[in-house]
Specification:
binds NADPH dihydro-nicotinamide-adenine-dinucleotide phosphate, 464 residues, seven-stranded mixed sheet
Length: 464
């Protein structure tokens, strides 16, 4: 059984000359894109057995060269006026990475850290994630370095309108369908959709997902990523003779994914004791009172430390070291649901020493490659983000489906479909891992299962 990601093996000489060549090519062509290179190495590092078996089929059609090169990157200026009447300029992006399986699909992130490397890593991950859902969607991602924190509603609206004035030239329900991500929730999607409709003079409901329920949104979309993460975790634990009931859980983040992961984990009888934001975390050993977190984050758009105002017995721990405070808390199950590279090797060591049994990536690439390696080689199960957080995009595809039918499914109908999709994603992941000798290394399993689908489609569609 090969329980490691073979990442280092790949960098230092895999048995596949073709893979080595592609990893070097990616590094030389994208020298200033560390997050993108990290994502490429993470995926390619696990594909060795597949590439060795199919090298003669893939190499002549430049399959790997094409899979690491976006079909298109759009970068644009976003000018807007703030509340003081001052002109501001941000940078907008849309990366249409791979449309083999369907219209490009992936969220929009508004965060000051957004740059081309982060957009490309997210879009690259999205190709594989979308393939795992089994739904007809290609991979894309977009966003802006705009910081929504502290902005008024009017500023958010003006920014969204300006952003969409350019983006609308490049999207459409059969072309590219954006959704939310960090900093983009229901409010932003509403403003973006309004501007799209105004410019196009056309009610194209399927052009964006994550819409409000009153204008084409799907029930259970808001909950989908977090719930889906827990459905995947349930299956992964079951396959390894464990269950969520009675387990202590810590969650990083307190945004959309974190909140609904907490809700579903609690429903399954887990004790969620911590949640965080970028400043610090709250520790409530008696179990997080989620209605209080929802009020702080979804209604007041406040900080997680305000939880203590309502629950004085809880502890607030400010981030002040290299490891975010939330990861110093002892737990059986760790759910990183904030941002990329949140868990580095040192955090992985602390979590493992503290008895972690499983990590479920609600965020995209929240663990560094070294952290994943460490977990896997120390017997900690890892549910990789591209499989475990695919419930959001899967439900977005269900939203597109309802928009096409001009029909709505009930919450339970959507939730049941979501559960079925996540159960199936885990089954495919497990099967691929076992078939290629990776045992319960689901990181490798997810990459292989997704890659095989995309490779097949790319081969059928010719050299494009
Ligand atoms: P939200 O904006 O709703 O919440 C983000 C949370 O993460 C906040 O608590 C935020 O804290 C925290 N956070 C963001 N950036 C940082 C940072 N640099 N350091 C520490 N904490 C940070 O986003 P989502 O919940 O939608 O997304 C969370 C993750 O899940 C992202 O990786 C996203 O790509 C991924 N994801 C989201 C999906 C979705 O459907 N929404 C689907 C699949 C994946 P603060 O308020 O302090 O910034």
């Amino acid at each position: 059984m090969n329980n490691s990601c073979t990442l280092n093996g790949t960098q230092n000489g895999t048995k596949s000359a073709y893979l080595n060549e592609i990893i070097n090519l990616a590094a030389s062509k994208n020298p200033n894109e560390p997050e993108f290179l990290q994502a490429v190495k993470e995926v390619l590092g696990t594909l060795e057995p597949v590439i060795l078996k199919h090298e003669e089929e893939y190499k002549p059609i430049a399959l790997l060269e094409r899979i690491i090169e976006p079909e298109r990157i759009i970068s644009f200026r976003v000018p807007w006026i703030d509340d003081k009447g001052q002109a501001q300029v941000n940078r907008g992006f849309r990366v249409q990475f791979n449309g083999t399986l369907g219209p490009y699909k992936g969220g929009l992130r508004f965060h000051p850290t957004v740059n081309q490397s982060i957009m490309k890593f997210l879009a690259f991950e999205q190709i594989f994630k979308n393939a795992l859902t089994g739904l007809p969607i290609g991979g894309g991602k977009g966003g802006s370095d705009f910081d929504p924190k502290g902005k008024s509603d009017n500023e958010i609206m003006r920014f969204c309108q300006s952003f969409m004035t350019e983006l609308q030239k490049h999207i459409g329900q059969d072309v590219d369908v954006p959704a939310g991500d960090i900093g983009v929730g229901g409010r932003e999607i509403g403003y973006l959709f309004g501007q799209y409709r105004r410019i196009k003079n056309n009610y194209e409901a399927g052009v964006l997902t994550g819409k409000g329920l009153d204008y084409g949104g799907s029930l259970a979309r808001k909950e989908a990523t977090g719930y889906g993460l827990i459905y995947f975790m349930r299956e992964m634990l079951k396959a390894n003779s464990m269950e969520l009931k009675g387990k202590t859980v810590i969650i990083s983040g307190s945004g959309n994914v974190a909140i609904y992961a907490c809700e579903k984990a609690q429903e399954y009888g887990a004790n969620v004791v911590a949640m965080s934001d970028s400043n610090g975390c709250i520790y409530d050993k008696d179990g997080i009172k989620l209605d209080i977190v929802k009020e702080i984050k979804e209604v007041k758009r406040g900080r997680i430390k305000e939880y203590k105002d309502s629950v004085p017995s809880a502890q607030y721990m400010e981030n002040n070291g290299e490891i975010p405070a939330v990861y110093t808390i002892k737990a059986d199950i760790v759910l990183p649901c904030a941002t990329q590279n949140d868990i580095n090797i040192n955090a992985a060591k602390v979590l493992t020493e503290n008895g972690a049994k499983a990590v479920g990536e609600g965020a995209n690439m929240p663990c560094t490659n070294e952290a994943v390696e460490y977990f896997l080689s120390n017997g900690v199960l890892v549910a990789p983000g591209k499989a475990a957080n695919a419930g959001g995009v899967a439900t977005s595809a269900l939203e597109m489906c309802q928009n096409s039918m001009r029909y709505f499914w009930s919450f339970d109908e959507v939730d049941k479909k979501l559960d079925g999709i996540m159960t199936n994603i885990f089954a495919q992941t497990k099967k691929a891992a076992e078939e290629y000798g990776y045992g319960n290394n689901y990181v490798a399993g997810a990459n292989i299962a997704a890659f095989r689908k995309i490779a097949k489609g790319m081969k059928s569609q010719g050299l494009i």
